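Thread: Newbie trying to understand structure tokens

Hi all, I'm a second-year student working on a class project, and my supervisor (Dr. K.) asked me to get a predicted structure for one chain before our next meeting. I've only ever worked with sequences, so writing a 3D structure as a token string is new to me. If someone could post the tokens and maybe explain what I'm looking at, I'd be very grateful. Here's the chain:
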Amino acid sequence: LMDVNVDGVLFTAQAAGRQMEKLGIPGSIIMTASMSGSITNFGQHWVAYNTSKSAVIQMARSMACELGPKKIRVNSISPGYIYTQMTKDFLDPRPELMKQWSAQNPLGRIGRPDELRGVTLWLASDASTFCTGSDIIVDGGHRAW
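---
Reply by user tm_fold:
Sure, no problem. This is what the structure looks like when written as tokens:
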């Protein structure tokens, strides 16, 4: 888990940063973290996963400081519960869990992957040139409660 969620993100971001620096172009590196990187989800004892996503959030902050002077921005996105193939395989056999997760945010549902498009596009675009070292939470208000 740590090899993929931490080392994989680190090595990919470092390679992207080196390439941007080599070409002398400003850029944006966007890492995918999770709301689980800054909270512990009720009833779920996924220490390794939560720790790996916390690492991604801090990695983005640290790399933002390192790469900012080179005009390279680094941010993370922390999705809440999103209905993906991974969560589908976990949730479909457990409809009670789907209902529980949906009730844990003010919108009363789990998010869809396409609902991350807007924030991803914004972070990748010149509209966010003063945003670096930030973790953007997209969780349907889960953390608001």
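A couple of things are worth pointing out once you decode it. The chain has one domain: 2-81+113-144. Residues 2-81+113-144 form a domain with the Rossmann fold fold (CATH 3.40.50.720). Feel free to ask follow-ups in this thread.
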